[in-house]
Amino acid sequence: MPIQIIVPEGALTPSAEAEAFGKLTELLLRLHGLTGNRFMTPNVIGEVTVVPKRRTYSGGKPADIAVFELKVPSFVLPTQELKDAWISEGTAIIERAAEGRIKREHIFANVSYAVDGGWGIGGEAFSNSALGSAVAAAA
User: Fold this and answer.
1) Among 25, 4, 31, 11, which Cα is nearest to 95's?
2) pLDDT of 51-76, one tens digit each?
3) What distance in Å separates the CA atoms of residue 131 and residue 28, rounded to the nearest whole number?
């Protein structure tokens, strides 16, 4: 379940990058009641992408922004309540990590869904059912 954080240079310290990524991972697992799940935990992956200063934009003009993206199977965050929690709590995580270097209104989030059967781990394609079974077996 890739998480990607995109920020301009200087927005987050290296330790803040790692802390924010860890907190987003914890948030995703908590929202699904999967904290500590042996299958799911190591499969929450991703990166922090740091782009050169003045290479992030808002309204077509250079601006310090942050984006956190989540790519997941279609059964993740299935309700609007869970999506709302991901976005509001995730925004707070990024805002704290930025320590005032990025305004709250310049923090953006999105969730993208893979089609059923289009999720792969270690070269194996998983259907939603197979993923659910793997998660349940590791509970």
Assistant:
1) 11
2) 999 999 999 999 999 999 999 888 88
3) 16
